[in-house]
Amino acid sequence: MKNKLSRREFLSTSIAAAGAFSLLPLVDLPLGAGMKKPNIVLIMADDMGYSDLGCFGSEINTPNIDSLAEEGLKFTQFYNCARCCPTRASLLTGLYPHRAGMGSMINRKNQPRPPAYQGYLNDHCVTIAEVLRQTGYHTLMSGKWHVGEHRPHWPLNRGFERYYGLISGASSYFDTSYVVPGTDKVRIMVNDDKEIVEKGHGFYMTDAIADHAVEMIKNYANSDKPFFLYTAFTAPHWPLHALKEDIEKYRDKYLDGWDVLREKRRERMISLGLIDEKWGLSKRDNRVPPWERAEHKQWEAMRMAVYAAQIDRMDQGIGRILAELKRTGADKNTLIFFLSDNGGCAEILRGNSPEIMPGGPDSYMSYGIGWANASNTPFRRYKKWVHEGGISTPLIARWKGVVKPNTMTQQMGHVIDLMPTILDVAGAKYPEEFKGKKIHKLDGKSLLPALKGKTRQGHEALYWEHLGNCAIRQGKWKLVMDGKLKSWELYDLEDDRTERRNLTEKYPKKVKRMRKQWQKWAEDVKVFPKKLRFKR
Fold first, then answer.
1. Which residue among 55, 81, 84, 125 is the active-site one?
2. Virtual CA dihedral for 530, 438, 139, 399, nearest 10 degrees?
3. Over the stretch 103-134, which tens digit does the pLDDT of each residue have?
């Protein structure tokens, strides 16, 4: 592993003064007298669909993630913010992304103002790391940051003691100096606060992220303080780059095509109790032909094979993380979360060419709409949209002795809930002020009661906006809008979570009430400077 730190270097941290701040207590702490605070490991995949894990209905080999589900709790109705940056902002701060400084702003023409979603965390929010470090935790991160590319906003300036990973968005898995096709962008790779270039000598991004996470556990597991480790993989985000031995496992697995795959996954999901049979399967995207009429079938099947190989490799890395937790004995008192930042991605890259097979370092491809449709089985739409396919995430929580093994909950949750949950289980307190700045109140609510098998007091409503795509979910009802069509759709998710039957004509008063409620939220979090007008 390149740029490996010595034990002395790894342990020699300088804890910067964070300034005085006043505190608000959190309740329902699980810690009894004399109990050691738990370690917390938060693992996130990048652009992975709802049905891409074995324990969520997939044929992809994910035994290590599946083991977390077997020994823990699966959330079947957990939500993200539809895209990489907004989700990461909400996860780290417990706030809706706009409030944290990472949302898009809509102008009077109903179009997002540039930059559409890229920004940085503002100084009226605090990260999990900033609060936990004040509470006596080691704060460690390996992986993709993507909530501020400029040095003042890097992880070590937002509460982390140690960091290794990609500051900016995903890029080549084999060479971090690679220029993204069609742009002049070179991604920023960092070890602590020093820019580095990783390539050659067997470098593969997924392995490197896992290796550094393992090293961090090795060096901090037996410290006199607990640790928080945030591991943010870039897998399986495009480009389709995977190792040959992993690709071979899936080479001929997808020759039956996306239609058969969607049906098989849906059947497994029903048998696992993840989805209701009455929902039905959302229609195949109208831009995608039936598999029997698809061209270049061998190439298409290989694209999905490489995508599966990327997930497989991530799972292998998670296996090494779990093994190190066990080796050090830390697993006995560690809460582990696993989730994805958004749904499967239907983006089409310039490098997509049937003349070149995907997978190697000289290719730069995405897996396309048909396979993204399968990743998000049984739901509609993809990353960027706020229909269920874009915002539904498989959340798994394992905490030995607290979370009952092999359980599942339909209680709703959102990435804004992870910050208050983590502070809750750590016995930490959320600040009213930090470094002389007033801090926004948390939007999220602790999931701790759900982790204990109880019913928690959830949100009265959940809200979304990204690139003009808008939604509000209140109980079983969801009002959602495609930003390009600019008309609202109403769904009863209890009967129709696949969003096939639009009920706006049947319940116009409900549409009007929920639309006003969304508008009030949007004004509160600063989605736009002035009111918008929609078709209906």
1. 84
2. -70
3. 766 554 555 554 445 578 999 999 999 999 99
pTM for the complete prediction? 0.91
To the query of whether residue 146 is one of the catalytic residues in this protein, the response is: yes
**Axis crossing angle, helix 297-328 with helix 63-70, rounded to the nearest 10:** 50
- Closest CA relative to residue 402, chosen from 27, 29, 30, 28: 30
Q: What gap in Å lies between CA 394 and CA 65, rounded to an integer? A: 11
**Could you read off the pLDDT of 22-63 as tens digits, one per residue?**
333 333 445 554 568 999 999 999 999 999 999 999 999 999
Whole-angstrom Cα distance, residue 44 to residue 323? 18
Which of 98, 138, 146, 414 is catalytic? The answer is 146
Selection from 314, 363, 361 nearest residue 341 by Cα: 314
CB-CB contact of 75 with 421 (8 Å): no
Give the pairing type, strands 39-45 and 433-434: unpaired
Other Cβ atoms less than 10 A from the Cβ of 498: the count is 23
What gap in Å lies between CA 128 and CA 61, rounded to an integer?
Answer: 32
> Phi and psi dihedrals of 340, rounded to 5?
-115, 150
Cα–Cα distance, 121 to 119 (Å, whole number): 7
- Residue 462 is inside which H or E element, if any? strand 462-466
First to last CA, the chain: 56
- Bond prior to 63 in cis (omega within 30° of 0): no
Q: Give the pLDDT score at 8.
A: 34
Cα separation of 333 and 288, whole Å?
A: 47
- Give the DSSP per-residue string, 21-82: --EE--------TTPPPPEEEEEEESS--TT-SGGGT-SS--HHHHHHHHTSEEEEEEE--S
Active site residue 81: no
Say if residue 5 is exposed, middle or buried (CB neighbours under 10 Å; 0-12, 13-18, 19+): middle
